[in-house]
Fold ribonuclease T2.
Amino acid sequence: MAFKFISVAVAAIPVASALSLTTRATCSSAVESCSSGADSSSISSCCVNKPGGQFLQTQFWDTDPVTGPNDSWTIHGLWPDNCDGTFDENCDSSREYNDITTILQNNGKSSLVSYMQDYWQSNSESPEQFWEHEWSTHGTCVSTLDPDCYPNYKEGQEAADYFQVAVDLFKSLDTYSALSAAGITPSSSKTYTSSQIQAALQKVTGKVAVISCSNNELYQVYYGFFVNGPLTNADFVPSTIGKSQQTIRA
């Protein structure tokens, strides 16, 4: 069943603590993306995400056809937007990998593949095709995942880092449980107001996220974040999302 809504405003959910991922070149300090400090030319784009310093973590609730578990939203992607509300896509054609599964397995992430097969699905193409699209379209635009940022770079390891961070962030944003705790559950007849949704989710961080609806049915949620230091730090700071970023994207 779908979530039916009268309006489309919602708040973000808190994020997880930092991760321990691939060894990277050392940065002197963790600078928050989109801050005044991040603008300095002395700060390497390997040490702070720029210009794509605001990240949108997007989630699906698919009903046509039904995709993913019946008690959880699923991952759409993790998108780096520029700090002015614009965004870049498909930033490096040389790294448009066509076998994400093998890349993850070669980097010791077989369990991550298993999780993604359940929680990172498309309702219109294979999981592998979906992952390839998300990486080439969005992952290649993350400055701190550039191969030059790795001291002993091996092809594909930056993609493995991207998917690990995206999944771990998703796990910290349990949209279904947050709504369910307030009695907001999928229904073919019930509707919910924006104030009900905000009351359920703004208790967590107070940061407003964005909802996408189709035919008055909720199908997507966007959460905004800045990041302290490289993306692999996974040190996310919840942020609001500007109106210019609230566009239909894939």
